[in-house]
Amino acid sequence: MNPSSSSSTTTRPCNFAILRKIAVLISTLGIAFLILSFSSPFNRFNRFSPLDEQVHDEYYELRKLLKAASTKEKTVILTYLNEAWAAPNSIFDIFLESFRIGNNTAYLLNHLLVIAVDDDAYTRCQTLVSHCYLLKTNESSAIAHQANFMTPLYLDILWRRLAFLQTILTLEYNFIITDTDVVWFRDPFPHFITDDSDFQTSCDRFNGDQYDLNNFPNMGFLFVRSNNRTIKFYDFWVSSRHSYPHLHEQDAFNRIKHDPVVALLGLKVRFMNTDYFSGFCSPSRDFNKVCTMHYSKIADLKTALEDWKTFISANQSELSQPFNWSVPNKCLYSFLG
Ligand SMILES: *[C@@H]1O[C@H](CO)[C@@H](O)[C@H](O)[C@H]1NC(C)=O
Ligand SMILES: *[C@@H]1O[C@H](CO)[C@@H](O)[C@H](O)[C@H]1NC(C)=O
Ligand SMILES: *[C@@H]1O[C@H](CO)[C@@H](O)[C@H](O)[C@H]1NC(C)=O
Ligand SMILES: *[C@@H]1O[C@H](CO)[C@@H](O)[C@H](O)[C@H]1NC(C)=O
Ligand SMILES: *[C@@H]1O[C@H](CO)[C@@H](O)[C@H](O)[C@H]1NC(C)=O
């Protein structure tokens, strides 16, 4: 039955090949049709448009905050915060300080919308930044003290977060989503707006080709434009949890990025150079380029802030060798070889 293994006839293998192509095409289109027509997020809002600001539905508060926080181009910077990370002298304080000591990054705090997942995180958020949204769920009290991130509960939080981000897209806002353990040293917008890609992500490992799907993304920092392609893609991504119940959303992304459905949607994905958007697996090698740095430990984040302060206060013309991070390389991912 395998066309390529049969060489005795010339017509039948060819017919099989064509039939198989047609079958693949039909099933692919069928899947795409299902996704495009039945799972559109707009189907969930049958009485009101999610875009209508006057409507007092469940998105009333969120719409008000998005409007207040967004840039002229309708982009917001989002981060998730729980009580453990919001406590004084913990990750959130370091995160905010990086904006203040970064180069032209302080203004970005006006566009930061913090998604607080429990009451204490929300209360502390309000004392520190202008835009805070309380996203309470039945899991809020369990999440509040959660600092260890590979539990089943955390997995659930990640997938819920993905669905929430899709809501942001349907409300017609672009977003940067940043983990709170990412420190910001330069304004990332100039890097995003010069390219029309829909979905631009930081990487654990960057292979030099920004449009190559084989790059390893890191979902700790990414920029997504709101449009029909991204809304449908998020729908597809959220629904992929059924296929990958034990994976977190980043690993599920790595599986579905090659799916024909994604190509059919026309989603334009871009992987950002780790010289600009980096993490402990591939730290930026150039302090004159680095925009963001992602660590997971509070001590490493503090060290990164000290490194940056030393760099900007140094007399650049007197630096005898390129500046380097003081935190030793601790990447444990096997894919890095
Ligand atoms: C900070 O930004 C200004 C204006 O963009 C630039 O001239 C300067 O070189 C930057 N400083 C550093 C350390 O990158
Ligand atoms: C919260 O509700 C969801 C369903 O809405 C359920 O799957 C989950 O187990 C609940 N979590 C807790 C901690 O009760
Ligand atoms: C989706 O496409 C329709 C028709 O082309 C357009 O009117 C609408 O604004 C688009 N929605 C978004 C979020 O871009
Ligand atoms: C930086 O070093 C150069 C060369 O030694 C010197 O000419 C310059 O005045 C220094 N700049 C500052 C701001 O100290
Ligand atoms: C910078 O530091 C990292 C981590 O300690 C090390 O692996 C790397 O070789 C250093 N790079 C340079 C250019 O010194």
Automatic annotation (TrEMBL):
InterPro entries linked to this entry: At1g28695/At4g15970-like, Nucl-diP-sugar_transferase
A Pfam cross-reference name: Nucleotid_trans
Domain Nucleotide-diphospho-sugar transferase: 108-297
Source species, domain of life: Eukaryota
Keywords: Membrane, Transmembrane, Transmembrane helix
Membrane spanning stretches: 22-42
PANTHER family: EXPRESSED PROTEIN-RELATED, GLYCOSYLTRANSFERASE
UniProt-recorded name of the protein: Nucleotide-diphospho-sugar transferase domain-containing protein
UniProt organism field: Chenopodium quinoa
Annotated gene: LOC110704844
